[in-house]
Amino acid sequence: xxxMTKADLIATFSDRAGLTKADAGKALxxxxxxxxxxxxxxxxxxxxxxxxFKVKVRAPRLGRNPAxxxxxxxxxxxxxxxxxxxxxDAA
Length: 91
Prior knowledge:
CATH class of the largest domain: Few Secondary Structures
Strand order of the largest sheet: 1-2-5
Order of helices and strands: HHEEEEEH
Radius of gyration: 18 Å
Number of domains: 2
CATH superfamily of the largest domain: IHF-like DNA-binding proteins
CATH architecture of the largest domain: Irregular
Largest sheet: 3 strands, antiparallel
Shape: elongated
Helix content: 25-40%
């Protein structure tokens, strides 16, 4: 298995949708912008047959500095998560 880059994704999307690469690139950019905006606003973005994007909050916790072994406080953080749908997971 290889890695598909953004350029590869745009080229594939362009071929399958019959769009120019420029239009496919714009569509991909808009999709990622909307997902980022809506999840940052606290919404879940659900794409049927693909999955759900949402922001999860990681609670503050104690950790260790790997160089010194000293305990450190790790601050709360927000991370974007993706949960594939059962249909996408089976693909």
